[in-house]
Design brief:
homodimer; alpha/beta; 5-stranded parallel sheet; 5-stranded mixed sheet; 10 strands
Chain lengths: ~240, ~240
Amino acid sequence: MEKDFEKNGINENYGCLFGVGVGPGDPELLTLAAVHAIENADIIAFPGKTKEDSTAYSIPAKVIPGYTEKPAVPIELPMTKNQDELRTIHEKAAAQLEKYLRDEKDVAFLTLGDPSFYSTYAYIDEKVRADGFETEIIPGITSFSAIAAKLQVPIVLGSETVKIQTGLDRNLDTDTENLIILKAGRNAGKIRDQLKTAGFKAAMVCNAGMKDEKIYATIDDIPEMEGYFSLMLAKKQRVEG
Amino acid sequence: MEKDFEKNGINENYGCLFGVGVGPGDPELLTLAAVHAIENADIIAFPGKTKEDSTAYSIPAKVIPGYTEKPAVPIELPMTKNQDELRTIHEKAAAQLEKYLRDEKDVAFLTLGDPSFYSTYAYIDEKVRADGFETEIIPGITSFSAIAAKLQVPIVLGSETVKIQTGLDRNLDTDTENLIILKAGRNAGKIRDQLKTAGFKAAMVCNAGMKDEKIYATIDDIPEMEGYFSLMLAKKQRVEG
């Protein structure tokens, strides 16, 4: 792949690692930059154990001819809260990718949504750069932008604020007009009740853009519990005057 | 344009209004969905007075053959804080667009970034839908995702939160690990000082993706004042242990 090496002097004979945001599921939400990075890459890397179980890997297949014939490498990224284990996982992933970079291969690492929001890729990118390789991040459409577009509910307007958090560990900060809560499924009922008390309306979407997508359109529809990929959009009720 | 009318029974003989997020400036950050909506539209609508002064209008030109030959309609959206004036502006914009929809034309209204974040399009979409027309929103890459990718700084990780606000009217809420401040230029110095006091590091980018882009890479580089399209990314300093 042609690269502009003038921008970056380090290890210019090595390949470049592209962290490619592939959006939340619909291949139409790939950017042109993502399509071009995937087309030009020598190697596709994706989080997961096999092509078949990787959502990120599946997304470009419909829109990039010849995609499934490209060499593709699964990168296992098991979830854990143990910081030492996490570091070992990220170092192992970086080492796997650097083998190809040293071999002068450009690698496109596919990541769901946008690599800048709650993505494991950020740690891998940091490690690979620290090891002296060139990396580039290609932004993607986030799940919350896609869901807001689908529901035709703007996320934030005028002089409002929006706070984005996960629903796993934190208390809600309701000092904002708008809230986006990712991974809201496990504590859905608890979050729903907190939001109601604080005067918010809300909707929840599970497995957005997938075949088994579910939409809970009002706060009262939200159940006690849902799957991991559940996202809530909440808005403080306006007092009509 | 072929449309799936089974989804939506209202006024199916009329055209559809597509609110198309065109990203922050680089045409490579258009999504495939945006490209297809623009290609298939009968009319391009864009915010501004003329094609020449509209950034949103300029973005697709390099990547969509024949784009500049399509009929294109400027929609004037002057800024004001007067709510009555704003309503009149949005109603006038909606009426302009509805003329084409009644004429069975599909219209692609181009909007910088993502229509769900701080976009005037949200008001127009709501009005046009309330008037009984079909609309569809196509999400776009936000300026903050593009800037974070370029700076290779993740916006939010792990169990952190991120708060997004404008820098015009509000005090900073520093009860978050990460802050994104749009339109930070006018109060840049004041925001910088508040962030420093609260223990944040920060960077500011002005006119991201444009020819006159400027990057202030550290908090101490940020000047007292900058242009309207200035965005700050701020992160709470971690106490290293």
